[in-house]
Amino acid sequence: MTRNLLALTAGAVCAVLAGCGVEGEAYQPRPVPVSKSVIYLYRPYNFYSATIAPMVTCGQESIEMEAGGYYSFVNDSGPVTCAATNEASAQLKFDAHPGQEYYVKEEVSPGNLAGRTQFTLMNSEGGRTEIASCRKQGMPDTGSHH
User: Fold this and answer.
1) Residue 138 phi, psi (nearest 5)
2) Which of 17, 34, 67, 68 is a good FRET partner for 24, with 20 to 30 A between their CA atoms?
3) Is 108 contained in some domain?
4) Helix H segments across 1-146?
């Protein structure tokens, strides 16, 4: 019982201090297949829009991205579009190249009831730095675990 209370307290402290809006595994880079690309979609925690979780489609994947969460997936090379269902104009288009990784930052502001969404393609260094404070969400990877 005491151990559970300690775990809950530690989780609450993490949420308050680090802004971990999502419970899940810490960021772990995944291997990039030679013929495909890996896309990391992440949303830094923002207290003011934490209750808004728009459905986001990036490439062929869709997820309700929560504040403080990230999602990674393997994608075929070629054109990629990331869009939010709450705002048709919120789109990011880029070309994914084989063997590369991409960091797509989602920012949601409470502009209206559904929120306003913006996507930014980050450079790898900036993306890795920012995603480190996010937690994995969505279904577990079907790939190998390290």
Assistant:
1) 95, -170
2) 34
3) yes
4) 2-18, 124-131
Our count of domains for the chain comes to 1
Q: Is residue 56 part of a domain?
A: yes
Q: Model confidence over 98-141: pLDDT tens digits?
A: 999 999 999 998 876 667 899 999 999 999 999 999 999 876 54
Tens digits of residue pLDDT in 15-26: 444 444 678 899
Is residue 45, in this structure, part of any structural domain at all? yes
For the domain that residue 38 is a member of, what is the CATH number?
Answer: 2.60.40
Q: Is the pLDDT of residue 50 over 80?
A: yes
Our separate counts of H helices and E strands in the chain read 2, 9
SS (H, E, C) 35-48: CEEEEEEEECCCHH
